[in-house]
Amino acid sequence: xxxxxxxxxxxxxxxxxxxxxxxxxxxxxxxxxxxxxxxxxxxxxxxxxxxxxxxxxxxxxxxxxxxxxxxxxxxxxxxxxxxxxxxxxxxxxxxxxxxxxxxxxxxxxxxxxxxxxxxxxxxxxxxxxxxxxxxxxxxxxxxxxxxxxxxxxxxxxxxxxxxxxxxxxxxxxxxxxxxxxxxxxxxxxxxxxxxxxxxxxxxxxxxxxxxxxxxxxxxxxxxxxxxxxxxxxxxxxxxxxxxxxxxxxxxxxxxxxxxxxxxxxxxxxxxxxxxxxxxxxxxxxxxxxxxxxxxxxxxxxxxxxxxxxxxxxxxxxxxxxxxxxxxxxxxxxxxxxxxxxxxxxxxxxxxxxxxxxxxxxxxxx
Length: 365
Description:
By secondary structure, the protein is mostly helical. It folds into two domains: about 5-180, no CATH class; about 190-360, no CATH class. The chain contains 18 helices and four strands. It has helices at about 5-10, 15-25, 30-50, 55-65, 70-80, 80-100, 100-115, 120-145, 150-155, 160-165, 170-175, 185, 190-210, 215-235, 265-280, 285-305, 315-340, 345-360; strands at about 240-245, 250, 255-260, 260. It has a two-stranded antiparallel sheet with strand order 1-2. Strands 3-4 form a two-stranded antiparallel ribbon. Strand 3 (about 255-260) and strand 4 (about 260) form a beta hairpin. Helix 7 (about 100-115) crosses helix 8 (about 120-145). The protein is globular and about 50 Å long. The two termini are about 35 Å apart.
């Protein structure tokens, strides 16, 4: 599967680390999870914008070269007691050396406004996110042998994933703050075209697979249905009006893009990641290894849930249909995984949380 830098960074945050971050920010775990889900892609968007110039790319590489590539594994310890204050201050210093004052203030203000943070919580959140992001980039740069140009190229190649991960409205806030390109928020709408092409290609693959009798159709068929729903609701061809159970005819949904965020594509990516996480579990050890990915799924679903108030009734129905199509196979896979000896003790809480969130999205109020 292709790399998704946002998901990979968020998956590094273990439950223990999340609790430490929550304590450092003075927030609950759910609020902290949502805050990080906004801060990480927002910072990556700003860094990608900075890396677009030769000077900016060089400055970014300097900061990444000084970051700890193993910071994710040290996060819990680094945020314990007095070390926590030092860690946050170090993060603030790193960001201040990387971003000019106006950019840092604009970024912090946009994220704080998005997630409702007040006082010192916003700067502290960005300091922690900064340590995590630059550490992850340092590890990638070292393992892949990237120089300044290569690192900037990596961030550029991840623009689609970064934009898709931004909570609804945050792209506009970043654009208004002047910390990303002027067309940043609007560019996310173009993902609709890519989603429709993906749906068409996947459908063709399914047809070929069905003829061969391959046994992975259990996963592929629900994904095709989901992608077909995205293709339909993104304006391909002529769409008839929708008649509700009360006999009221409403306009057909033409897209699932809200505030520059392609909600349909974000949900499909999340379902795909969940599929991979569940499919990787074969024993207790692999279940423990999959926990960060399951937590990343929870974070992504929280992001989609946060967008729900901005969706129209027809868009909510479309999203619910997408999730409903995928749920049976996901539940079946989850049941098989939890039936493996010892795995239930490790993975059941995380799996149950994900299933509950999916069921809620499948039946919007």
